[in-house]
Input
Amino acid sequence: PHLRTFTDDFQTCKVRGAWPLIDNDYLFVQVTNVAVVQGSSATATSKLTVIFKNFQNCVDQKVYQAETDDLPAAFIDGSRNGGEKHGANSLTVTEKAAGQYIEIQAKYIGTTIVVRQVGRYLTFAVRMPELIMRSFEDNQGLQLCLKGCPTNERMDWRLVEADGGHLPSQAAVAHPSFMRETATAKCREKLPVDDLYFRSCVFDLLTTGDLNFTLAAYYAFEDVKNLHSNKEKFHIYERTADFPPGNSAP
Amino acid sequence: CRILKCNSEYLAATSGLHVDEESVEFCIALRAYSQCTRKTARACRGDLAYHSAVHGIEDLMSQHNCSKVGPTHPPPRTQPTSLDFMVHSDAPEMCNYEKSLQQKAPHPNYTHCGLFGD
Output
């Protein structure tokens, strides 16, 4: 999937299987990614687990789990808040659109999590105070949201672009007519700015031919607009390529 | 070896705490102390003060039934007022990150992470 880290780094990763996104003193988030088409190492998220750790007199430990076609509006114990403690309502799950969009508010740690199902796959977004984000031990382990994907798990999507916009072999059989021009036009409808969300969208359409990925990129950017604290950093542009009109290279 | 720094941080965190009444915060401070000593373990392996601290932490955690797993940072909170002591030490304000920060840092820095697509 495409990953935007806490430091606004943008990567496309393989990370097939289960990987931790966040692992700090208050919160643990893990995603499971599966291959989307044969012949490509591209994967997408099919499962997401969030553990809110027991916190003083505010909340009990709560686990939220979503899978493709199962986006519950409750924790796995059926509850929608933080349990029996004095501040239980400082942790709540809210269904914004049934089966498509849920939001978890963890006020005791100033954190908001958005989980969506778009097509067959899940998207994840979080807003978290920097102090909470940094509350972990040095040896606590990998967190994709913190340092991004390991180098050997990153994908260079320019290889796909260099192919002239043709699809990887197996996907090409499934979607022979899906060329770069079509993908670009479809993505342009939802993402008019030529940033990395737009380019992710084109990559995903070229890789899968699945138009739902256009919406996934669109909603990911909507979540940035809602959750990111710096309006100047909503868009991220490719560092080594051409820059959009009006934006000079740093 | 920076064991003295760990000692100072622990003393600062527990100064003014009434151990019997504030066991949750005491355990948090002990876990933080333990975490700090672990970070200095290699550099302090021949330091008597370090080994003394490690054993002392274990004893205190056992005495106060502290779990080894749990938060190591108390939530940022404003200085308690006399009203806080009259009502609850665990009043809902401490369960609201932004409210608890209001005096120290009215505009906390927020970060964002997102994952989508294929």
